[in-house]
Amino acid sequence: MKLLVTGGAGFIGSNFVRHVLSKYPDDSILTLDKLTYAGNPANLAGLAGEARHTFVKGDICDAALVREVARGVDAVVNFAAESHVDRSILDPDAFLRTGVHGVYTLLEAVRALEIARLLHISTDEVYGSIAEGSAAEDAPLAPTSPYSAAKAAGDLLALAYVHTHKTPVVITRSSNNFGPYQYPEKVIPLFVTNALDGEPLPLYGDGRNVRDWLYVLDNCEAIDLVLRQGRDGEVYNIGGGHEVENVAVTRDILRLTGKPETLIRPVKDRPGHDRRYSVDTTKIRALGWTPRHRFTDALAATVDWYKRNEAWWRPLKSGQFQAYYRQQYAHR
Ligand code: NAD
Ligand code: DAU
């Protein structure tokens, strides 16, 4: 298979590119990525010299470029998005541009070039906060942040193309990922790297919001399965089946880094903070997927990765990040 992977220099995208190239010797990938603050060539550094991988810097909103790089591919996998909820509260502009107009640009290219498949990567956040039970794929969309509203808009546009133009789209909606190469603004890498430096861990609100943690390599396997065996027009939820309160994950991180619980700093809550996400994963499991990694082992491996890869994360936490961190946390 020849793939166009958009957003492949980000966290999940780069793990997916590595997964595909190591599992399928006959596959090749062209990665298109704008290299925003979250996109990082170092995430793909291990692929230097790999003839089956090509990198192009560019924007998924650039219709001419997208058509140029998409010509001749068997499928497009779209990871490109602004992905951090807190930043969408500070400034939603890029979220809407990439999340809506970018998806529109990809849909038009897939239609015009008659590409056999567009796999669009979405999120469990489109269902909104789930008080009880779990959201199946046909649950109503009820996004509550500018980030999740932009993602829901992208999903709806993609499904409208399925309905109107029979565009061959499949969508995955996964829960919270963690693992290597995650930008250290997200809670697990932020807390791990803060703990390693003996810095406070800013826990929002009462710390009892629930997220369902999914190891990124398990997500890559699920995405790969949907890419090759999913049905056109269908949505597939992907969840780790490990729902825990944030305070429990925080304590796990402190235990794994050997740091005291006095580092926990309760801070003012995120505006509109969704209490709990939970997806029903019956459909992807029926396709033959199940998460292979236990949360505790995967979290220990992740902490170990950040310990060993200080040269990767330390530059990311300096400069521009410091300004963001002050703006985001100083007043809390
Ligand atoms: P990330 O922020 O680490 O990576 C996003 C990548 O997209 C970056 O490399 C960035 O440079 C690129 N990008 C942004 N705008 C672009 C544009 N206009 N054109 C081309 N490239 C652009 O994000 P991630 O955590 O890897 O998430 C990837 C996808 O998965 C996103 O669509 C996100 O909504 C979704 N998702 C993430 C999670 C999670 O827990 N991280 C869970 C569910 C769904
Ligand atoms: O559910 C899937 C989503 O998971 C993805 O679609 C998003 O792209 C991804 O960023 C993630 O969103 P969250 O908002 O759940 O992730 P984040 O790591 O920002 O926060 C996880 C939880 O931790 C959330 O309840 C807020 C809390 N938190 C977060 C930060 C950054 C804190 O308590 N303190 C913090 O400093």
Task: Explain the overall architecture.
The chain has 12 helices and 12 strands. With 332 residues, the protein is an alpha/beta fold. It has 2 domains: 2-177 and 215-238, NAD(P)-binding Rossmann-like Domain (Rossmann fold, 3-Layer(aba) Sandwich); 180-211 and 242-272 and 293-318, UDP-galactose 4-epimerase, domain 1 (Alpha-Beta Complex), CATH 3.90.25.10. The chain has a 7-stranded parallel β-sheet, with helices on both faces. It is globular. Nicotinamide-adenine-dinucleotide is lined by residues 6-7, 9-13, 33-36, 38-39, 59-61, 79-83, 98, 102, 121, 123, 151, 174, 176-177, 183.
Keywords for this structure?
12 helices, seven-stranded parallel β-sheet, 2 domains, Rossmann fold, binds nicotinamide-adenine-dinucleotide, 332 residues, binds 2'deoxy-thymidine-5'-diphospho-alpha-D-glucose, UDP-galactose 4-epimerase, domain 1, single chain, three-stranded mixed β-sheet, alpha/beta
The count of β-strands is 12
pLDDT averaged residue by residue: 98
Overall tally of domains = 2
How much helix is in the residues? Answer: 40-55%
Strand content: 15-25%
Order of helices and strands: EHEEHEHHEHEEHEEHEEHEHHHH
Q: Uncertain runs with pLDDT below 50, 5 residues or more? A: none
Span from first to last CA?
A: 49 Å
CATH superfamily of the largest domain: NAD(P)-binding Rossmann-like Domain
Tell me the major beta sheet: 7 strands, parallel
Q: Just give the CATH class of the largest domain.
A: Alpha Beta
Tally the helices. 12
Bound molecules: nicotinamide-adenine-dinucleotide, 2'deoxy-thymidine-5'-diphospho-alpha-D-glucose
Global structural class: alpha/beta
Any idea of the CATH topology of the largest domain? Rossmann fold
